[in-house]
TrEMBL record:
<dbReference type="GO" id="GO:0016705">
    <property type="term" value="F:oxidoreductase activity, acting on paired donors, with incorporation or reduction of molecular oxygen"/>
</dbReference>
<dbReference type="InterPro" id="IPR017972">
    <property type="entry name" value="Cyt_P450_CS"/>
</dbReference>
<dbReference type="GO" id="GO:0020037">
    <property type="term" value="F:heme binding"/>
</dbReference>
<dbReference type="GO" id="GO:0004497">
    <property type="term" value="F:monooxygenase activity"/>
</dbReference>
<keyword id="KW-0560">Oxidoreductase</keyword>
<dbReference type="InterPro" id="IPR036396">
    <property type="entry name" value="Cyt_P450_sf"/>
</dbReference>
<dbReference type="InterPro" id="IPR050121">
    <property type="entry name" value="Cytochrome_P450_monoxygenase"/>
</dbReference>
<protein>
    <recommendedName>
        <fullName>Cytochrome P450</fullName>
    </recommendedName>
</protein>
<dbReference type="Pfam" id="PF00067">
    <property type="entry name" value="p450"/>
</dbReference>
<comment type="similarity">
    <text>Belongs to the cytochrome P450 family.</text>
</comment>
<feature type="binding site" description="axial binding residue">
    <location>
        <position position="389"/>
    </location>
    <ligand>
        <name>heme</name>
    </ligand>
</feature>
<keyword id="KW-0479">Metal-binding</keyword>
<keyword id="KW-0349">Heme</keyword>
<dbReference type="InterPro" id="IPR002401">
    <property type="entry name" value="Cyt_P450_E_grp-I"/>
</dbReference>
<keyword id="KW-0503">Monooxygenase</keyword>
<dbReference type="InterPro" id="IPR001128">
    <property type="entry name" value="Cyt_P450"/>
</dbReference>
<keyword id="KW-0408">Iron</keyword>
Length: 447
């Protein structure tokens, strides 16, 4: 786990020993579609499988958020948060998404126009600039200004350390007595973590002081926060989680998709043709119109399947008293995970699972497809059940807008150097994919 190869190790164990394997003294991994329902969905007569505290504990010194709350508090918080991610909210928030995606395109065009043969950029950085600027605006009415400055805000640089520290803490929690000792040994890191968190507390307070004025995430939280609402510390801590989860996962998915598109030029060409023939001008690209672009939507589904930003799936524990998963009885407290990486690349679920084929998601246009029997329900990057991602529509909208705007405005070409040849699936994972630089050449298209 500390080497960052846990996902691939578990995947290898699944290939060798089957769909249900033991990966720790008290831990099972499932690579079976049925397990999504058994572990995550609400099953009448069954208790909820609780979030595994080894992975989901409150970071030291921080209050509980919707991620770490017990079932009762979680339901209360989810009620408050829910409307912020409704279709109505998304429509109102569209100008925020448009502003930053257009700014990303404008900044990249400025760079690309300097030389006819285009410009080489580390696209991982640019997608992160865009998604973090969007979430800063959506959460706090304060962009992180990465796109305008062309570099990371200090708060974002700190996040990549937080993932590694969290993975390390999770390893240590397997030996509970070690955690307290470890935390005492890294006072500087703990101070950084606290300073990082305090910045969100301050941003949250500044945004709350502005009131309900704009239809961002905070305005919905404030509007819904009646008598049975969230406390100020719960809101601050939840905004912290949303700032990280609401940006890093999306930019990682965009980088993964771009990596596979560049290596599959026929797919990239088909996508560019679909997008460029659908619009007269980049200003016509709206969230509603993007829903109609079938190939674009297939590319995104395939990207989420083959380059998942959260490859392990959310870890859970069997409730007290025990329960069954995929027909197997497990005692209470058994740690379980549905290993999305293994399942989404399983030959039992998908034809040609290691290859990038957006067509597999277009069956309604091609009933003779070789992908007709693919088990689409195996790919569940947003999870299922009462704790599934609240922002699925928002995320798809953001991915569609970013990807369509990129291929509308640029020819994206491969770069013949180590960063250009990055193999996406070879990267390490510390809870999320530990992305390396990935370089592409962008050539401006005159539309
Ligand atoms: C590709 C992008 C994303 C992926 C793969 C993703 C994945 C997930 C997953 C797997 C969960 C469930 C965790 C669990 O069951 O324990 C979740 C929950 C959640 N996510 Fe996302 N997410 C993404 C983007 C976003 C964005 C952009 C936001 C907000 C701006 C967001 C907000 C949330 C919220 C509020 C929950 C609710 C969890 C709960 O009820 O406890 N996510 N996400």
């Amino acid at each position: 786990m500390l080497r960052g190869y846990n996902i691939r190790d578990v995947s290898r164990i699944h290939r060798e020993y089957g769909e249900i394997v033991r990966i720790g003294p008290n831990e099972l991994s499932f690579a079976k579609t049925e397990a999504w329902n058994d572990v995550f969905s609400h099953r009448p007569g069954h208790q909820e499988f609780y979030r595994n505290p080894i992975w989901w504990s409150r970071p030291p010194g921080q209050p509980s958020s919707f991620i770490t709350a017990n079932p009762e508090d979680h339901a209360r918080m989810r009620r408050v948060l829910g409307d912020a991610f409704s279709e109505k909210a998304l429509k109102e928030q569209e100008p925020i998404f448009q502003r930053y995606v257009q700014l990303m395109i404008q900044r990249l065009r400025e760079k690309a126009q300097i030389r006819d043969e285009g410009v080489i950029v580390n696209i991982v950085d640019w997608y992160r600039y865009c998604t973090f600027d969007i979430i800063g605006d959506l959460n706090f009415d304060e962009s992180f200004d990465c796109l305008s400055n062309g570099r990371y805000h200090w708060w974002i640089e700190g996040i990549f350390n937080v993932f590694k520290i969290s993975a390390f803490l999770a390893c240590i929690r397997f030996f509970p007595w070690l955690e307290a000792i470890f935390l005492r040994c890294i006072p500087k890191k703990m101070q950084d973590l606290q300073q990082h968190y305090q910045a969100v507390v301050d941003k949250t307070q500044r945004r709350m002081n502005k009131g309900l004025g704009r239809p961002d995430i905070m305005s919905y939280i404030m509007r819904n926060n009646g008598e049975k609402g969230m406390t100020a510390p719960e809101i601050q801590s939840s905004m912290n989680v949303l700032s990280v989860g609401g940006s890093h996962n999306t930019s990682s998915t965009m980088s993964g998709i771009t990596n596979y598109l560049v290596k599959n030029p026929a797919c990239l060409q088909r996508l560019a043709m679909e997008v460029r023939s659908a619009y007269q001008s980049s200003h016509d690209i709206t969230l509603a119109s993007l829903l109609k672009l079938l190939y674009l939507n297939g590319v995104i589904e395939e990207g989420l399947r083959i380059a998942p930003p959260f490859p392990a799936g959310p870890p859970r524990c069997v409730p007290p008293g025990g329960d069954t998963v995929c027909g197997e009885w497990l005692p209470g407290g058994t740690e379980v995970q549905v290993n999305s990486w293994s399942l989404q690349r399983s030959p039992a679920a998908f034809v040609l699972p290691e290859e990038f084929h957006p067509e597999r998601w277009l069956l309604h246009t091609d009933p003779s497809s070789i992908f007709i029997n693919d088990d689409k329900n195996a790919s569940q990057q947003f999870s299922v059940g009462p704790r599934r991602c609240l922002a699925q529509s928002l995320t798809y909208a953001e991915l569609r807008l970013m990807l369509a705007s990129m291929v509308y405005s640029f020819d994206i070409r491969p770069v013949d150097n180590p960063a250009g040849k990055l193999v996406w699936s070879d990267q390490k994972t510390y809870i999320v994919v530990d992305e390396r630089p990935f370089e592409v050449c962008l050539v401006s298209v005159v539309n």
